[in-house]
Amino acid sequence: MTEWLVALLAAFVGAGAALAGSVIAARSTRAAGERQAEAALHALRLSVAEQRAARVHDQRRQAYVRFLEAADAVVVTRRTGEGQPGDVPDLHRAHSVVALEGPEGPAAAARVLMDRLRVRSTPDELDAARDGFVEAARAALDGV
Predict the structure, then answer these.
(1) 8 Å CB contact between 129 and 121
(2) Euclidean distance between CA atoms 44 and 138, whole angstroms
(3) Are 99 and 33 in contact (CB under 8 A)?
(4) Which of 12, 31, 114, 138 has its Cβ near the most Cβ atoms within 10 Å?
(5) What average pLDDT score do residues 113-120 get?
């Protein structure tokens, strides 16, 4: 009977060891899975942030280009007397987009250029205001 009791005890010890091994393996697997999920979530957050920054950069660049094109069209019209009837409204729409997209540097430089265009400034003043806007736009785009 002792052999039977020893076999039974050995079976219980073996089953307990197997169960303990399974629990330890499950916990370590779960911990590894959680670490992997956290790493994947972190990578996803970085990717979304990079995509948002790229989208903002592109939207601002497009707004600055549209404003610059519209301002140049009005300047050429003032200098040559040839232009399109929609040049000034296009400029105002483009200015509104720059003011909305920001940041403050390009928006302020755009206001200066708009003010120069409103008071019919000299060509040198217009060029200086245009150059100021270009510099502010470049600085903003480099900083994004």
Answers:
(1) yes
(2) 29
(3) no
(4) 114
(5) 90
The owner of tokens 């039977």 is: 4
Both structure tokens of 119: 């008071």
Q: DSSP letter string over the chain?
A: -HHHHHHHHHHHHHHHHHHHHHHHHHHHHHHHHHHHHHHHHHHHHHHHHHHHHHHHHHHHHHHHHHHHHHHHHHHHHHHHS---TTHHHHHHHHHHHHHHH--HHHHHHHHHHHHHHHTT--HHHHHHHHHHHHHHHHHHHHH-
